[in-house]
Predict the structure.
Amino acid sequence: MATAGAVLELKDFKADVPPDWCAGCGDFGVLNALFHACAEIGRQPHEILVVSGIGCSSNLPGFFRSYGVHSLHGRALPFATGAKLANHGMTVIVTGGDGDGYGIGLNHFIQAMRRNIDITYIVMDNETYGLTTGQVSPTSETGMITKTTPHGNLEGMLNPLALALASGCGYVARGFSGQPKHLLKLYADAIQYPGFALVDVFSPCVTFNKHNSYEWFRKRVYKLEETPHDPTDFHAAMDAALTWGEKIPIGLVYRDRNPRPSLHMQDPGLQAGLLVHQPVAVGKEQRRKLVEEFM
Amino acid sequence: MNEPDVIVGIGGAAGDGVASAGNSLALSVARQGQAVYAYNSYQSVIRGGHSWLRLRISATKPLNHGDQVDALIALNQDTLDRHLQELIGGGVALYNSAKLRPSYEPPAGVQLCPLPVPDLTPAYKDLPVMQNTVAVGAVINLMGLDFTGLESVLESTFAKKPHVVKVNVEAARAGYDYAAVHFKPLSKQLRQTGQRWAMVTGNELLAMGAAFAGCKFYCAYPMSPATHILEWFAAHGKQLGVCVRQVEDEISVINMTIGASHMGARGMCATSGGGLALMTEAIGLSAMLETPVVVVNVQRAGPSTGVPTKTEQGDLNQALGASQGDFPRIIIAPLSMPDCFTTPALAFNVADRYQCPVIILSDLLMSEGNETVDPAWLDVEFLIERGELITAVPAGDGREAGAGGPYLRYKDTESGISPRALPGLPGHLYVAASDEHDEDGVIISDVYTDTVRRKKMADKRSRKMATVLEHLPAPQLEGPVDAEVTLVGWGSTWGVLTEAVEHLNRAGISASHLQIKFLVPFHTAEVTAILGKSRRVIIVENNQSGQFARHLRAETGIAAHGHIRKYDGEPFEPKHIVAGVKELLTNGTEVVEVLSTEAGWQTEHPTGTSGDWAGRRVTAKANTSSLAT
């Protein structure tokens, strides 16, 4: 075990189970960047909880060496919120796909940002349902032909970055698994952000989304860090979030200059410290007072 | 009942102050040593409609709200019209004579008690709720109790507003004194005692019981009739160090609760049937992750939105079938409001020991009813058993922790229980997965097929159930083995059945009583032994299809001789059960459906009187009788 203060390495976070993703899957890049980012931050594996939902990308906790939970489809954020509130000493990272987070779990996504739970949410966005073999997703482009939209997707694309900004998310970033070094910086930064942080990652599905390929993204993405973009300017961030087409920005879109206190810092029941360390028994005098309220 | 009991009915529209008048009355008499059982029948409106609160008051603890009315407090004309006819001889009807007057002659022996409220409270003529305070003062006098209880309640209720105390005490005193001079006391007089009582609802007891049992995380979405549990926790979370969250829906509620529990905080959530439907998938998650969770379903009348403010025992099937696949679950139905207090401690202990979901089936009757409980009885330090938890930090890095090799979160043990390490502990890393997984937590769902490991892990989980019954006390038969009828109920009907059995025995029908608290696992051997000797088994349940009857048959092979069912939204009263038993015995039908149809229950209230509830037969399906008045 790497002892406290010792330098952590990539292998400290690499599980014994090899990923079972398709060769070339964008999720490999996400996982590798996460190994590096966690080693850089210096949190021990047992101090990290990675929670996922269901989908190809949600298999990630099984390949990452830390405490992990592979929960229900769409429910990773509520599960992780409960976990963080119970033990806010842990670093909690949630991973999943666009279907999991922006489809079935969308309500929880918005609510988690609104309540500002100190969680890093990494969404491997491949604009398709991969595990179920290629159906339309909330982030599929309008007109996209899939198994369930043989005549083209009639619905508009969900914009997770703009939604995040509108929902009070204090840290909004987008990465591309084809650019892992850039990605790991975003992860390291997001994990250390004291509040809810979203990192939406273009993570191509090489098997079921022939449209949004590595090539497709490579041609379009540019780094906000290489532009005059000011990530503390909310309106500039919204402009960046809404940019889509021939050019698509990646990088840090928004970082709240004065992060509001996260939920665990404010919850009245957590003021005495970690919930899991609180005494479970209620003292006699306190019990007496509570009963007196009914008399 | 050894001591006389007085049943006071307070009726009015929503917004008339029925509940607050009832609270003042209940607390006042409780402070004079009277035990109370109250049930409020109301509708899902914020203003208007009809709300009908009955308080049964006696020095002997009542077990249900009874089935008649001795004293009526009518806060509007509608109430006077509906309920005057239900009063029994020796009873009284109190009303503000400046606003209301009876539309018909009261039943024989009933005393009309008109209260000239504006004359009694000349200084406060413009305050509409003065009539409530005056009437409460008057009825306390007529029951034979002194004024001090009410005075102290008004003082503590309005402690922060001294001028309001003065107004209310004067009004109450005026009502009390006026009654002493102008009306005859009730024929039943209450005896003041020195017993102290706490006035509680089933929801409050459930919440406080959970807190005393170490609940550290409580999460809910507002849903009647479970919301008061959330409100109690919200009011006390800070002082108790409990994280209390209201979140977006019941799906989030239960997943968050399981998440908190996964880290080691005792987590509970509560809802009603519709919310439990949303929680269903995650109940299976709890079982698969082997992360304990306690889920409370305060049942109301379904299906769908159903009748949100009405009671039913209609969610047993839902609890039995919640979530896909086979897995260990424990289902407990507390038998009474006081039982709501102790049930969470038991539920948490078995949830922790067996690392599985526990469902508590309460219902609207218990959750929103008010009952007095001996405060000494609430001063309990519950035994808190967390089950097999690993807390020691091993040497090594966890990849080969300890002498026995790497830590196996889902170790295939003889008991099926795998010692649990809480995330955060060094050297015990694992992934808890909703997919089928092996002992080390690694999922096996993505391999071609793995029949051996799949069966091994399913068997491991189900093996846990083998020993649960050791921790759950078996039900006992109350009354003689050779009784003519054995009434079998489950959950909240314990009190009314206990009283119905007394009535039956007095009526010359020897009766015994078996009440079931633990639905899953089921005390099959014990129940089979008891009912195997019974002469005539009659199942009484507050639902339409006999959900418990089917469960009993599945668990024991015993088909009851008769069934008494009620699914009209209102709870059983003793008379319904007595009439149902008589009907079964005389007419040989299999199912008797009873219905509350006293005039007061009708939307269009008829005038004219109804006599004692005798069980008039209204329709007959094959093998089924329906009783009503």
Q: What stands out?
A: Confidence is low (pLDDT under 50) at residues 602-612 of chain B. Chain B touches chain A through 76 residues (CB under 8 Å). Residues 265 and 360 of chain B are 19 Å apart (CA to CA). The longest helix of chain B spans residues 162-182.
